[in-house]
Amino acid sequence: MIKNMHKTFSPTRGIRIRNLYALLVGIDNYPNPNHCLQGCVNDITAIAEYLHERFERTEYQLHLQTLKDKQATREAIINGFREHLRQAEEDDVVLFYYSGHGSQEQAPQEFWHLEPDHLDETLVCYDSRTDGGWDLADKELAVLIAEVANNNPHMTIILDCCHSGSGTKDPLQEVKERRLPTDKRKRPLKSFIFTLEELNQLSGLREIKPADSSTGWHLPKGRHVLLAACRDHETAKEYNAGGQHRGRFSYFLMDTLSKTNGKLTYRDLFGRTNALVRSVNGDQSPQLEVNNPNDENKFFLDGAIAQLQPYFIVKNDRTSGWVIEGGAVHGVQPPQNGETTVLALFPFDANIDDLRNPSMSVGTAKVTQVLPTKSKIDIEGVQNLTTERTFKAVVIGLPLPPLGVHFEGDEAGVNLAREAVKTAGFDGKPSAYIREESTNPEFRLFCRNQQYLITKSQDTRPLVKEIDSYTKENAQKVIQRLEHIARWTTIARLSNTAATVIKSGDIKMELIFDNHELSQVKQIHLQYKYENSQWQPPEFKLKITNHSKQSLHCSLVNLADNFAISTPFFEAGSVRLQPGEEAYALDGIDLVLEVPDEFWKQGITEYKDIIKLIVSNDEFDARFLTQDKLDAPRPPIPRNIDSQNLSSLERLMNRMQDRDIKAKTTAKYVDWYAEEVTIITVRPLNYTSIFQQQH
């Protein structure tokens, strides 16, 4: 290679290697202790490790600058744009990632024609709230982005912060929000990085307060993609991920990226991240904004992420012992509550076909510890194992740990619930779905005033009707409901972290509403229509098409807001599609989405359905996943399964079955993939008044 400054040329191809410039900012420890956060530096560390390990080295050169805590002053961030990111030329890639507090500030009177509320949206730098310090206003961010955009690079902006909300939280909501109160100081015009004339010139290049902006960030029309943690009226929350503090948005964004093999479009990245964030709690909705509609279908960072091989290299490391060359940034999941990632080992010279043939396997390995770029393993069954040997490894099993529940309140109720968990599983064994967890729970079980109340860990709203009276039977009933919710949550988050051969886009899922295809959107709002003197629920068709070169088995699963799971789309639970073949759900009959009366009568006008597409190279029956709505929990489920050699998809199916089964020996290692689309149905509360308003 011949290098010239930041330009690298290939003598054999004569093509300039593209540059990836990244500026990553994370601030936990603000000067005021009351302003401190806990997960921002972890967010930046995670994305930095991901970029280092996963960028496409044959086509890109990485230039990374990180600013953490004290380093992230206002001046340093501005210089990061002007001295680092502005080096990007046409066809280069730029990433600005901010994780910290957002806020607002009093806008100078000269800006009032741009800001009807007389407030600027801001990023809170390390020294912003000190004497003489100021936030980085959205207009300043707009100027910096416009300066970088002048050379026409591919630009991505990621903001894990917010500028709305009260800045307070419920005592039961033990989670921090990434927002500081509005800065009430009068800021002089001269403190901005531009003159008034420059601002007026910039305002001609952008829409001030665009009507279709749901984030509240008003950035220039210089071409860029914006991923934001939440809507403008919501707050960005922190999240406890296995004992590590993270931003909820950043954690699930990185979870999606690390579990994806290779390139992912912004639309798909947003859709998966949004579904995962909202599965924790519906009070935070990530947003994707582009000023060129075609950019939604561009690859994240314009394809700068390399595709993983569908296997890991196994070797003996002098310091760590046996390891696979894959860690957290590659999507390897750590051991959790007795479950871990299981791999089949093959000779190093095995080809792709060999890796799918169990008879070619020479042993297995279990992950014991996951590090950022490698994972420690224990090897089993390999004959004549010496430290000089190397192997290829394929993931054949993923951990499916039970979800954590925090029990609190009256001792009598708590003790009964604890006893119920111990015997909720098959043959009087502990529950396979939930466990008591106080440090990082998914849900809470409140025992108070002779009532059992189930909530999410960061919310106080009940998920199911309260159960009255502390009795053994009622304790068993509430544990069954918690298991019911846990099953739903596990399926909603179902994804394959292995480097699969099946890719996003191999099977295309299309929603057709009023003859318009909605497949480009991962979250859809459908509204009731007033027809024939009454409100009619929305109808749509659902189609899947095989764009791959192999035969694939596909299923569609509906996860409703009342925690019901159904598979009504295909008679056999799944359908086999040959390359180029398509299939309509219910043979093309219109599907109807409704807000159930029991929700609507309580004043709930929005109802969420998740339609999950599951694709596999082997036949499976998704009907094993079905369950009734929450208020009709089914009886205890027998589970007598030897799952050692099953894929995580098969093990999950087996856990859901309502009859005693034995696991069959698979003829090949199963490759599978899952994605989803969220549909929110809106039903007006007052028929008459709304109709009159419309007419």
From TrEMBL:
SUPFAM superfamilies given in the database record: Caspase-like (SSF52129)
Pfam family, one: Peptidase_C14
An example molecular function term from Gene Ontology annotations: cysteine-type endopeptidase activity
Keywords linked to the UniProt accession: Plasmid
Gene3D superfamilies: 3.40.50.1460
Origin superkingdom: Bacteria
Native organism: Cylindrospermum stagnale PCC 7417
Protein name: Peptidase C14 caspase domain-containing protein
Residue span(s) of domain Peptidase C14 caspase: 21-293
GO terms under cellular component: cytoplasm
GO BP terms in the entry: proteolysis
